[in-house]
Design a protein that fits this description.
This protein is of the alpha/beta class and 424 residues long. It is 23% helix and 30% strand. It has 3 domains: 53 residues, OB fold (Dihydrolipoamide Acetyltransferase, E2P) (Beta Barrel); 197 residues, Rossmann fold, CATH 3.40.50; 128 residues, OB fold (Dihydrolipoamide Acetyltransferase, E2P) (Beta Barrel), CATH 2.40.50.1070. The strands form 5 sheets. The chain has an 8-stranded mixed beta sheet with strand order 6-21-22-20-19-16-17-18, with helices on both faces. The termini are far apart.
Amino acid sequence: MKFESDIEFLGRDGDGIARTGEGVRLFVPGALPGERIVAESLDARSARLVDIVRPSPDRVIPPCSLFGTCGGCAIQHLSLPAALDWKTGLVVHALEQAGFDSIPQPKSVQSTPGARRRIDLALRRTHDGIRIGLHARRGDVVDLSDCPVLDPALFALIAALRPLVLSLAAFRREGDALINLLDSGPDLLLATDAPLDATDRAKLAAFARQHAVPRIAWRRTGSTDTPETATQTATIRHDLSGIAVAPPPGAFLQPSRDGEAAIVASVLDGLPGRLNRKDVVIELYAGCGTLSFALARHARVLAYEGHPDAVATLKRATTGTRVTAEQRDLNRQPVMARQIADARVLVLDPPYAGAGAQMEQIVSGRPERIIYVSCNPQALGRDAADLCAAGYRLDRVTVVDQFLWSTEIEAVCVFTAPRAPRRR
């Protein structure tokens, strides 16, 4: 059934929200707020864009030839300034829903095209070759023949991967390739559906030498085991706030340099004006130390991380710094309120699902200041609601758009307790 509708706003997945003549809301991919469109309903939730009667002034020509097919980007038809405004609005809305009625004017930062330094690719054998790329929305793998998001060095490596992967006996039908562009060069974690043989390992070593890839690690597709290093030609090195670390294969890093810099700067800007060498900052979900070493310039840092390889990386780099790292599954064994109460500042960068069981201890510990780094507005809203109910004030909000043209959003929020906690 075709219908005509105005688009009032975008949903969380970047789809325009339309209303049928009966008032039913439907998601319309490709439609933008302010537009008058003709759509055709597909099911009880979605519709297909048929025509644009009145286009939005924020509509632009998508910069990628694969837009609408590849699932990596959802809003390339929306201008970058408008996309940043939309993402900022989603963060503000989540905080309003959490109960904060006085929200400071957000600061917003946006990465540039061609800055993405991390990508997780799917590999699929076809009857005539191989597809290397991202999944279509609720669909199969789309071959990545174009990508204005990726750092050109990463994109060039994808083309070189095609003949290599096709030649491997370990690659039968499917696999994955995760690439981090470290300071030492591209770091490749390859997963295949059969084990590597000696010939495969020799091919990987030759590829690493030819394309200046310092390390290629491997594991079986679907496995959560620690990857094995298939070949290494140079030392692994990556700089985090002036400290050299050696991230494990497939390590989580912020996807762009400018995005990482914006997050670190926002966290440091959120620190109290006066910190001394005896003050303690507790950092939760520390990863390999993206924030740890920057924070250590201002106070002692107790950094907690659950992933064993990440915390091992962090520990190896702490010599001579004011960072103490400890492995802890914060959902099963949260840092307790009595320890949190002794910290001058609590910094947390939880996973997509939010801080979970750790929030109860945070609220009970009532630290003077909480700096929350979020990658999911919905989880941020849930956790912030606990802080609002405990009387915390929201002092600063920074939105960082380093996942250009996608619906992913980063935010840094600074919360302050209404009165200083009693020191123990």
